[in-house]
Design brief:
The chain is an alpha+beta fold. Helix 4 packs antiparallel against helix 7. It starts with 9 loop residues before the first strand and ends with a strand. It has a seven-stranded mixed sheet with strand order 2-3-4-5-8-7-6, with helices on one face. Strands 1-11-10-9 form a four-stranded antiparallel sheet, with no helix packed on it. A two-stranded antiparallel sheet has the order 12-13. Helices cover about 30% and strands about 25% of the residues. It has eight helices and 13 strands.
Length: about 325
Amino acid sequence: MFRTRHKNSRRIGLAMLGAVSAMALSGCSTAPGSVYDFTQINGMEPAQQITVQIPQALKDAAGADAENLLVTSVVVKSLDLDSSKYCAISIEITYPDGAADKLTTPTLTKAQADAAAEDDVQTFLDQYEATSPADLEQKLTRQVQLDTEASLKSMNSDMTVEEYLASYDDFDSVQEAALERWIRDDTAGYLGYLDELPSSIEEGAEKVISGMEQSYGAEAEEAAKVSNVERVASRLHLSSARAAAALNVSAPEQGAYLSVDFQSATRVQDCAKSPTDPDATSSFDFPIQSERGIDTFATVGLTVMKNGEISIFSGEVNGYMVDTNRDWIVEK
């Protein structure tokens, strides 16, 4: 199963100090156009235009993990600005058929929210081996009854359960004692869904379930309010992107700009002092549709200098790496 970024993900850091010696960038002369496919562990020369693509060999090695890629390649070019403060790159994005529409899907749909709430409710009830709030109260009350009877038997007491609970713990009923125990033993934090303490376990459990459903529902409502541009931009690592029409090349503001058809983007960023300047790097993600939603399959880091030279600063494929023969293997 494909996984998003994790501790074992391999970052092919083409410019990072302390990396494998073979990963140093070669030369700084400008090439007319280059192709980066995440296998160039020896680096590549800066260029005015770079195509970044997911190679077929990686797709073959990843198998099902690489199915449903939502971006297959991008063409990155330097962009002239009437500004000495910032540099910019343009990114032309290639999507498989229908992929751009998938990127506009809310991060949490109502159907997903309902399913997630249902799962959490089931987990909550399963913790007590209960089928409903009423069944939960019955089971917990019965357990207090049995525990108290066992205590009375061990003390050779002829008191009733009710008399014992009233005299020693000041409870008016077994149900009240069970409620107190439930509140005390709520290590999972379910009672955090309640505004006030319930008068019974059944009431409390019903409010917990309602709180779960309302929480997921509110999250889905908020997700639905996000614009399509924001959704697509965040999944391409172009967070807080504005509409392309907002870009003023004479007085550019730092950040990302995305066209209304999502086919092209512009990134205004700090000019790199060198191809390996870690403080002037921007990233672009290659998203993928998974069972959990939309994840990141690969990420590339980019720098651009004032003369328009673009460099690949880093490349990362989550869960996969190239060996010394440049063959793709699963990362252990």
